[in-house]
Amino acid sequence: MNSIDKAPTESISLEGRTASFDLNQVAINIPDQKVDVAAGAVQVHVEISERPIQKPLNVSSLTNSREAERVTGIAKPARALAESN
User: Fold this and answer.
1) Residues near 74 by Cβ (< 8 Å), separated by ≥ 6?
2) CB of 37 within 8 A of CB of 8?
3) pLDDT value at position 75?
């Protein structure tokens, strides 16, 4: 008997969703006809969040030697900044 590495579920629509959610009784779709699934449905948790985007920040400042410095950083969505303060 071989093990199964993954068990795909039925498609889950994210249309209109803006926050994480749970679904009960999501069907498991295993295309192999030789596999019989004892529990034909599972509970699924879908996590929806904004992801930080790393972009160069073009910030210049003059040092004592009058040289410009370039700084890079991570730009976070406004909501993530508000939650971290």
Assistant:
1) 52, 53, 54, 55
2) no
3) 62
The answer to whether 44 and 26 have CB atoms below 8 angstroms apart is: yes
Please tell me the predicted confidence (pLDDT) of residue 20: 93
Tally of structural domains, the chain: 2
* CA of residue 28 relative to chain centroid, distance: 22
Same domain, 43 and 9: yes
Q: Which domain range does residue 16 map to?
A: 1-48
Closest CA to 31 of 8, 11, 3, 12: 8
CA distance 15 to 21: 12
The pLDDT tens digits for 4-45 are 777 888 999 999 998 999 999 998 887 777 777 777 788 999
